[in-house]
Structures are given as structure tokens and as C-alpha cells.
Design brief:
Layout (H helix, E strand, L loop, with lengths): L3 E4 L9 H16 L3 E6 L9 H14 L5 E5 L4 H13 L3 E4 L3 H13 L15 H9 L5 E4 L6 E6 L3 E6 L7 E5 L7 E2 L1 H11 L4 E5 L3 H14 L5 E5 L2 E2 L15 H6 L4 H9 L15 H7 L10 E2 L2 H14 L2 H14 L4 H4 L2 H11 L8 H5 L12 H7 L4 H15 L6 H15 L3 H13 L7 H9 L3 H10 L2
Parallel strand pairs: 1-2, 2-3, 10-11, 12-13
Antiparallel strand pairs: 4-5, 5-8, 6-7, 8-9
Helix pairs in contact: 1-10, 6-7, 9-11, 12-14, 16-19, 17-18, 17-21, 19-20, 19-21
Bound molecules: glutamic acid.
The site of glutamic acid has 7 residues, from loops.
């Protein structure tokens, strides 16, 4: 048997980290079993669904490397299939039209509340006579289609993450609405119904989704039975929690994949981290792996029931591992958009080798791509502003004359451009001639060339600045502010 799984996002918002993590588990499971991963867009909520969210979802999945084998299928293009299925249940007597008004439902809820009972529909229109129906229609009432739920039923499934799950029919809130009124008398399908019709039609063998869908699963199993269809396996994955143990929400900063992208995470690092949100590989010390490597080992035995805490420090660490080991040319391609957006001209004015040299210089210090914006700022202009620590350094005794000696040495090099070895020679030469401490000279050079007291390797930075004479301008400014 070929395993068939799906991710079924609703385009009512950007691709959420929780949905993306569910997509990761579906993808890993499909790849592990050489199965099929299907993408279905659940866009039946016409008011809240938007094409730009669909775009964001497709783009996010692609960016993360979660390629799908079939789809995207759109529920709005499948309405006639749902209508046929509704008709089928009506014909079998397993569903019926319910004309209860919202006022009547509200009154029912109030009376249940007053008796401290959980709200549920009391199935009052389950057995209407044709005359009663005709009367309600004549009153101009609209209807919904309800599917009959037997309160005495016990619904049991063996969840791949949570083991045996048992639900009672009486806990499902009475006969469930599967479609709303529409002019043709059959109705617009609702989520729980359309999902089952689609999962049957697409021959889904394993439904892998977040644990917030557990109550839906109980209802959906009854629908499979009503259609006489094979019930798939279910696997409910743990929620993603913040560090305080509450469900991760917008308040915790970002929640959508496009936000993570903007924050400077690499797709490989982010998807690697998401894989670990609830799953661990057999060798739990191994934390860095590709999706393909994870797929080899993936199974639900190693998925936790407990919620997975979202740990920013760990995500940063994993992301840094990908940045540090990435080929410089690939990292350059990834950083250029961030620099262009920051308005740094060197992305256009400099030759590629210079940019790559800069990237190689910054690479070991980066955990997020965005950090390269601040660090590269000093390379984006000809001169720099000195911060207060740098100013203090430049005012120290003997500093100005030492820096003047550096300028003289640079002039006498007649090299055009310096390399790291020339730069080190100049430092040695000035230390000797001027009788200054090497540490003092290096700190002063850093202050003069970068405007700050901390930053990437000084000699390499100098070599880069030297290539357009910016080093000399900065040294002059440090001497005569
Ligand atoms: N459209 C549902 C959601 O976004 C999918 C649920 C499912 O996977 O069955 O939560």
C-alpha cells in the first residue's frame, strides 16, 4: 500500500509555524515510506480566505523545501462533490434538514446553561414530518443540514502519537451541522464534512494534524462510517508552546514563516529546528540534519505527546550552524537582499569578489542573516561616525602620531592595494618606529577604521576598506576630526 498524506491549510492567514510544522511531519512521514504528500487548500470560508494568503502558504512551503506531489487542490473548486455527498447522506436517512432558528438555539443554550449543562443541540428536528417541514419552509425559515450522531456510540481509534483514544457520541454536541443553507436546498459544506469527503476522495491513508483537531476526529470517524469508507489512521501532533508553556501566539513575536524569513533565518535552519519541535531522532545528540536525513529515521514512536516548547536560543544556534557551514557564494546570495533593503550601495557598486570577501569575514559571527546588516554598516559608507568609546581611544596619548605613521606607511607602500600580510607588516613597522604597544595600535586602528571597539577581524576589515581608499580617509578623520 502506498501511504498518502496531506497538509490542508486554510488560507485565512499567512503560513503559520504550527501548520508548517505539521507539514514537516507529513512530509517526513511520506518520504520515509516513499508515499505521496498532497497539498489541499481549505478555502471554503469565503469571507476569511484570501488569495494572498494562499500565495504566502505556497511560497512558505516551497521556501522550506516541503515539495508536494499532488495539488494544490482547492475546496472551492470541489463544491459539487460535497453536494453530492450531502445528498447521499440525506438519501440514506443519515442526515436531515434542521430549521431551528438562531433565536431558538440561543434559548436552548440559555436553558442548558441555567441547568449547568454543556451546550448541545437537542436533535429536535431529527424526525420532522413532511407537513412540519412544509410549514417551516412556508414560514420562510432557512435550514442547515445535520448529520445524526448516536449519543450512545463509543468512538475509538488508535492514535499514532497518543495511543488509544475513546470518545462518547454524547460528548459531540448533538447532531452535527455538515452544511449551511443554500439556494439549491443542499447547502454549503462545513469544515468537518468537506475534510472527510476530500480525505476519502484523495485516498488519504494517514491524517497527521495538530492536537487541536482531536474532537473533530471523533466526528469525522462517524462520517467515514456513514459513507461506508475505510477510516484512515490518525496522528495528532503536539502543540507548539512558548517558553512559559502557553500556546505560541502572535504575542510571542512572530508566528508565520514569512516573518521568520524576514528575521534572517535560513530555510534549512528553520526546517531543521521545526523537525525537533516534538520529534527526536534515534540518536538524540544529533541536532543538525537535513530533511532527507530526518526522513530516513522518522516515525511516530518518537513524537512526544507533550507540547513542544519553542526555544529561540536553540533556533538561533541551529541557524548559526547552517550559516557557518554554508558556501560563501550561497551566503552572499542570501545576504545581498538584506543589504539592498538596508540601502547599502556596495551591493551594486562593488565587484562580487569584494562582496564575497566581506561575507567570509562576517560569516563566523552570524546567527541570523539580519545581523549582517548592522555589522556591515561600516562598509556601506566611505567614512564612519566614531562612537564614544572610539573617541576615547583616539584621544589616548601617542595614538594620533601612530595613526599618522600608518598613513605614511600606506603611502610609501606604493602597492595600490594592500593584503593581509602587507597590513600586518605595516603594524609591525609602526610599532617599532613609533615605539607604541601593538595592542594600543590595534585598538586605535579599530577605532579609526570602524568607529567602534568591537567587530569582525580587524586586518581583514582593513583590507576590504583599503580597496577604495576608505581606510585612509578614516585614518585622516581620526587624526583631524
Ligand atoms: N484546514 C484545517 C486547518 O487549517 C486542516 C485540518 C486538517 O488537517 O484536517 O486547521
Amino acid at each position: 500500500m502506498t501511504f498518502r498524506v496531506r497538509i490542508a491549510p486554510s488560507p485565512t492567514g499567512n503560513l503559520h509555524i504550527g501548520t508548517a510544522r505539521t507539514a514537516v511531519f507529513n512530509w517526513l512521514f511520506a518520504r520515509h515510506h516513499h508515499g505521496t504528500f498532497i497539498l489541499r487548500i481549505e478555502d471554503t470560508d469565503i469571507e476569511r480566505s484570501r488569495p494572498e494568503y494562499t500565495e504566502n502558504i505556497l511560497e512558505g512551503l516551497r521556501w522550506l523545501g516541503l515539495n508536494w506531489d499532488e495539488g494544490p487542490f482547492f475546496q472551492t473548486e470541489r463544491l459539487s462533490i460535497y453536494k453530492e455527498a450531502v445528498q447521499d447522506l440525506l438519501d440514506k436517512g443519515l442526515a436531515y434538514r434542521c430549521y431551528t432558528t438562531s433565536e431558538e438555539l440561543e434559548a436552548l443554550r440559555e436553558s442548558q446553561k441555567a441547568r449547568n449543562q454543556a451546550p448541545r443541540y437537542d436533535n429536535r428536528h431529527r424526525n420532522l414530518t413532511p407537513e412540519q417541514e412544509a410549514e417551516f419552509k412556508a414560514e420562510g425559515r432557512s435550514f442547515v443540514i445535520r448529520f445524526k450522531i448516536d449519543d450512545s456510540r463509543e468512538i475509538v481509534w488508535n492514535d499514532l502519537v497518543r495511543g488509544e483514544m475513546v470518545w462518547r457520541g454524547s460528548d459531540l454536541g448533538g447532531d452535527m451541522v455538515i452544511a449551511r443553507s443554500s439556494e439549491d436546498g443542499i447547502g454549503q459544506p462545513l469544515y468537518n464534512f468537506a475534510v472527510v469527503v476530500d480525505d476519502m476522495d484523495m485516498q488519504i491513508t494517514h491524517v497527521i494534524r495538530g492536537e487541536d483537531h482531536i474532537a473533530n476526529t471523533a466526528k469525522q470517524i462517524l462520517l467515514y462510517e456513514a459513507f461506508g469508507a475505510k477510516i484512515p489512521e490518525f496522528s495528532h501532533t503536539p502543540l507548539i508552546l512558548n517558553m512559559e508553556g502557553r500556546k505560541l501566539s502572535k504575542r510571542d513575536g512572530v508566528t508565520s514563516i514569512s516573518d521568520f524569513k524576514k528575521m534572517g533565518f535560513t530555510p534549512e535552519g528553520l526546517v531543521n529546528y521545526m523537525t525537533l519541535l516534538g520529534w527526536s531522532p534515534p540518536d538524540s545528540t544529533q541536532e543538525i540534519f537535513t530533511l532527507e536525513e530526518a526522513a530516513k529515521n522518522f516515525d511516530f514512536e518518537r513524537v512526544n505527546k507533550a507540547g513542544a516548547k519553542f526555544d529561540w536560543a536553540k533556533l538561533d544556534w541551529i541557524n548559526s550552524q547552517y550559516i557557518h557551514s554554508m558556501p560563501v557564494s550561497k551566503l552572499t546570495d542570501m545576504l545581498i537582499p538584506f543589504w539592498s533593503e538596508a540601502g547599502y550601495k556596495f551591493t551594486e557598486t562593488k565587484e562580487r569578489p569584494w562582496i564575497e570577501q566581506l561575507v567570509a569575514l562576517l560569516q563566523p559571527g552570524l546567527a541570523r542573516l539580519t545581523e549582517a546588516v548592522d555589522i556591515a554598516k561600516m562598509f556601506s559608507t566611505e567614512t564612519v561616525e566614531f562612537d564614544s568609546e572610539a573617541i576615547e581611544q583616539l584621544q589616548k596619548e601617542g595614538v594620533k602620531s601612530a595613526l599618522q605613521a600608518v598613513i605614511t606607511a600606506l603611502d610609501s607602500q606604493q602597492l595600490g592595494q594592500i593584503n593581509a600580510s602587507n597590513a600586518k607588516d605595516i603594524v609591525q613597522q609602526v610599532v617599532k618606529e613609533q615605539n607604541v604597544k601593538k595592542g594600543l595600535l590595534m585598538r586605535s586602528l579599530r577605532a579609526a577604521l570602524t568607529g567602534e571597539m568591537n567587530g569582525p577581524d580587524l586586518i581583514e576589515s582593513w583590507v576590504l576598506l583599503n580597496q577604495n581608499g576608505s581606510d585612509k580617509l578614516r585614518l585622516q578623520k581620526a587624526i583631524n576630526p
